[in-house]
Amino acid sequence: MSTWQEFAEEAPEMAAQVRARLEASQHHVLATLRRDGSPRVSGTEVAWRGPDLVLGSMPQSRKAVDLQRDARFALHANPGAPEDMMGGVDVKLAGRAEEVTDDEQRAWVDEVKPPSTESHLFRLDITEATTTGVSEDQTHLVITTWTPGGGTRTFKRA
Fold first, then answer.
1. 2-59 pLDDT, tens per residue?
2. What is the mean pLDDT of residues 62-89?
3. Rounded Cα gap, residues 114 and 106, in angstroms
4. pLDDT band for position 87 (50/70/90)?
5. I need a labelling partner for 118 at 20 to 30 A (CA). Which of 12, 35, 84, 111 fits?
6. What span, in angstroms and rounded, lies between the C-alpha atoms of 116 and 10?
7. Mind listing the pLDDT tens digit for each residue in 91-123?
8. Which residues pair with 121 in a beta bridge?
9. Superfamily for 4-127?
């Protein structure tokens, strides 16, 4: 697993694309695992805090409880309207969410002022990043993946 900063240092061009897509929209889709192992999708917002990509959550929300029980997540960046995707990439991240507590959580609450001082803060450790776009000549998909220590790999698919 890697922090956002480690991802950005290992794959700066890809990390810049991913960050641009995440910053282009406020709302994204987070997948977590329910108690029975089935998937749950929730809307979420993400932000950067120091070297980390983080997300907040209302106290005891289903996604927070899911992440406390099983830290695995997948995040799909909002691609925006179809016309906004022209020349852009679709972005997905996977990894593990680590809940931030104590002084660091309180500092975040003081800074961000979420609706409740009991709101959850999770640091997202990344195990995989994927971008998917269309080639310039519009003839195939271009899929780039990154994993910690594995670097980036690009595939083309018709």
1. 999 999 999 999 999 999 999 999 999 999 999 999 999 999 999 999 999 999 999 9
2. 86
3. 11
4. low
5. 35
6. 36
7. 999 999 999 999 999 999 999 999 999 999 999
8. 56, 100
9. Electron Transport, Fmn-binding Protein; Chain A (2.30.110.10)
φ, ψ of residue 12 in degrees (nearest 5): -60, -40
Residue identified by tokens 């969410």 is 97
Rounded to the nearest angstrom, the gap between the alpha carbon of residue 151 and the centroid of all alpha carbons in its chain is: 18
Token digits of residue 25: 């929209």
pTM over 0.85: yes
Amino acid of residue 102 = D
Which is nearest to 54 in space by CA: 101, 118, 114, 98?
98
Contact 135, 141 (CB under 8 A): yes
Question: Given the structure tokens 């799909």, which residue do they identify?
Answer: 76
